[in-house]
Amino acid sequence: MIIAVVGGTGWQGAGVAVRIAAAGHTALIGSRDVERAKSLAEKLPAALDLPAGLFDAATNEDAASRADIVFVTVPMTAHAMTLEAIKPFVIGKIVVDVTAPVNPKNQIENLWPPEGSATQQAQAILKGVADVVGALKNISATALFNYKKPSNCDILIMGEDITSKHRISSLLREMKLNSYDVGSGEICRTVEGLTSLLIYLNYAYHLRQPGVKIAQIDPGLDFIPTDGILPGT
């Protein structure tokens, strides 16, 4: 399967491309500057011990046109413009929106679009054209690059179409990433807002690649509260 990474020459996009190739699919790196994409596609295989034949390069539009699934990994400042550019080339496809709305000049600040979140903006722009799934919002590029190690970060998936979410969840399993479907709509803003929070934690506490992990409460609890303990119940 050919999977495009639109805006794939940044750290996050390159990390996504690595995971795609490690899963045995062709990572088609897209960029406004095709020479940058070619350079990255040539360097990644040797650097990360992956087959060179699983990386390719193209313009963003050509990558979106050739791919079966399209990941969008651009900064928020280029998000709407990039989606409009690839819109004619993603008809009937799944577009995985990876963009988090952090301000490139101040990463603990968010640049919220009028639609509410990056995923909702992508859904609005591509409405009736492609199914949009939000994913990989909170995992660091470093964790993505280290594909040989288990990731301690769960992936939160958002979107309107459950079939598309299931398909992306299956792809993420191939990429050795565990995911949870957390809904759609307003939840997109909540999930994307966690990214700037994690960046702040990294700055403030020097945590190593902080991420989101879904954990069950220990079943060996001593006390389970019931309504009967509250006044008037």
CATH architectural type:
3-Layer(aba) Sandwich
Specify Rg, calculated over alpha carbons.
19 Å
What's the structural domain tally?
1
Residue share in helices?
Answer: 25-40%
Instruction: Kindly name the structural category.
Output: alpha/beta
CATH topology term: Rossmann fold
Outline type: globular
The average pLDDT score comes to 96
How far the N terminus sits from the C terminus, by CA atoms, comes to: 58 Å
Structural summary, described in words:
This protein is an alpha/beta fold. The chain has 8 helices and 10 strands. It has one domain: NAD(P)-binding Rossmann-like Domain (Rossmann fold), CATH 3.40.50.720. It has an 8-stranded mixed β-sheet with strand order 3-2-1-4-5-8-9-10, with helices on both faces. The chain has a two-stranded antiparallel ribbon with strand order 6-7. A hairpin with a 2-residue loop joins strand 6 and strand 7. The radius of gyration is 19 Å and the shape is globular. The relative contact order is 0.13.
Offer a quick outline of the entry.
Helices cover 37% and strands 19% of the residues. The protein has helices at 11-22, 34-48, 60-66, 79-86, 118-125, 141-145, 162-174, 187-205, and strands at 2-6, 26-31, 55-59, 69-72, 94-97, 102-103, 106-110, 131-134, 155-159, 179-183. The strands form two sheets. The chain has an eight-stranded mixed β-sheet, with helices on both faces.
